[in-house]
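Repro case for the chain-ordering regression, as requested:
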Amino acid sequence: MVLDERKFMILKAIIDDYILTAMPVGSRTISRKSGVGFSPATIRNEMSDLEELGYLAQPHTSAGRVPSNKAYRLYVDRILSSGEISAEEKQRIEEYMKRRSGQVEDIIRAAADVLADATQYTSVIVAPQIQTLRIKRVQIVPVTDTTALMIVVTSAGIIKDAIISVPAEMDSESLHKLSEMLTHELAEHTLAEVRQIFARMFRDLSINRRLLGGVMQVMEDKLTEDAPEDVVIGGSTKLLNYPEYSDIEKAKNFLALFESRDRLAGLLKRNGGMDVTIHIGAENGVAALNDCSLVTASYRVGEHGNGMLGIIGPTRMNYRRVVTIMEYMGDVISRMLSSEQK
Amino acid sequence: MVLDERKFMILKAIIDDYILTAMPVGSRTISRKSGVGFSPATIRNEMSDLEELGYLAQPHTSAGRVPSNKAYRLYVDRILSSGEISAEEKQRIEEYMKRRSGQVEDIIRAAADVLADATQYTSVIVAPQIQTLRIKRVQIVPVTDTTALMIVVTSAGIIKDAIISVPAEMDSESLHKLSEMLTHELAEHTLAEVRQIFARMFRDLSINRRLLGGVMQVMEDKLTEDAPEDVVIGGSTKLLNYPEYSDIEKAKNFLALFESRDRLAGLLKRNGGMDVTIHIGAENGVAALNDCSLVTASYRVGEHGNGMLGIIGPTRMNYRRVVTIMEYMGDVISRMLSSEQK
DNA sequence: GATTAGCACTCAATACAGATGAGTGCTAAC
DNA sequence: GTTAGCACTCATCTGTATTGAGTGCTAATC
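-- result from build under test --
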């Protein structure tokens, strides 16, 4: 048996209806739809075939049919072309984003909110990967006699900061000099390269080795340590509005996931490619999201460094709309974060 | 009718049982308890009195009794003395907190997790109020030709940073000078005082007024603007484990509240005093938390600046335990944040 | 006079039995 | 190949007992 044109059309009609209603759809419903010129009986025969092919499932004998993940996969692969986002919506998004100040954190926060609001699903955004960003400046500011604040400014305007301890002998002026030197050495390199550069500097640097050694050791550790992922979530309770998650146990599952930013970031990074990619049901590989779909995309910041965005919703998600919005938002975020550097 | 010793004892027994089980408690249950030497019939008579006095309520005729908010209030006011926290638990908390690095954000994050874990309720911690902190240093670091990063280090080691735009004529060296000058002028003052100091500086400063004017205007705005509250939430899904919130609609209510950090911060600041304070049911004044209790406390950082911590749970919360833990955690947080400055 | 045993009463929760109706699968007619 | 017709399935709804936890009241007991 093969999936001919008519079967495909019927399957599409079923999916479209199910996305809207979340209720098993029957043959009569499809038959009534304009564009399908067949009686319920014919539809039934086709549905029976579609079930055998694994595209449909029946919750119980006397219920209508529900699309399987295989059906969504087909639907996404065959039908999906990103649509056009309406002008008003574009404007609404732009305006909301414009009002935000220039801090990276704020922009990402705003973007997550917009994304959740536009899709009505839960959104997740991972900040640009700091390891791949190019350093622009390093600054060390005294805080107390023995501690200082180290600030690293990168090409995306992103800051990595950490409190480090310094020898009491180093005063404000010498820290300033150290800052200038480090800026000179590290500028235009990525964080990932810091270790090698430091190694080279240790060889070349004859003076002050004892004094600087300790400071730089700490810096190196701080810079190269795995930072807790910078992840923001928008509309974490949006999913509770969908009937498939009205069960408190299911809800607990993914709400717990949202508490662990690290796991979320891992999820996005594992599943994300450059383009918008769709993971249906178990494809995403996390048990808590087995009956969810995950749509991921990435955005670029400057020449290096990129971050991820994703939305999580029921498998019967409005893929077309989501993909469209994701593409657009990826653009918007890239643009806003890149304009930081101007 | 008056609330004599025996009535009070029975009421306490009822509350204790209800806190444990969340089920209406009947006369037989109380009668069986050791320490209560009366038959169910006697208890029933007393319960009937207690109901008339407004301390108990019956969900329906043939159910047991449930304590009213008035009862919890009495219970809390009359009985509550903070207990002792077990040595093991203390150690567990200390150890978990010790592992955290010295960043304020991280410490608060960890504290929220510990608090939620220890109480099994949802915890909220508001970072120290930045307006009352004393500035230690101001540093302006160039990012691009026309933008710079302004960093303010305060007594708690807390950083306020913002991207500001600067005239293209100002190079790294002059920004450094500006930083030194600002540090000199602003050190030891609170953020709240910045506006006056700037006003005075404008009068005194004859040179470079045009050049500096713009920069300082921006700085003033950034420093005095209402920062989005720095609030962390721990165990936001903990409440879902309690039967009173198994209804998805109720759950949505307070989960939505957790998405708005500003509202949460406002809630804590409005309700919080210096000591541990307890707000039962509608006392906290937020509709979404009408059937929750809110326990708040504050912690001090250095001499100035203080933050809030709170936990949110069902009205039948284990107040004694919660108060004990809150007192202890307030101490721990104060200690850890203050040690920052050493 | 306080306490308790006894008993009738209430009412949520549970279980069960039809009834309903949406939907199917199959067969025979078109 | 398509469709009308019909028997069948089964979740859902509705109404009715049944159960049992718990109460309030009264009369007996301490």
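Ordering looks correct now. Chain A touches chain B through 39 residues (CB under 8 Å).
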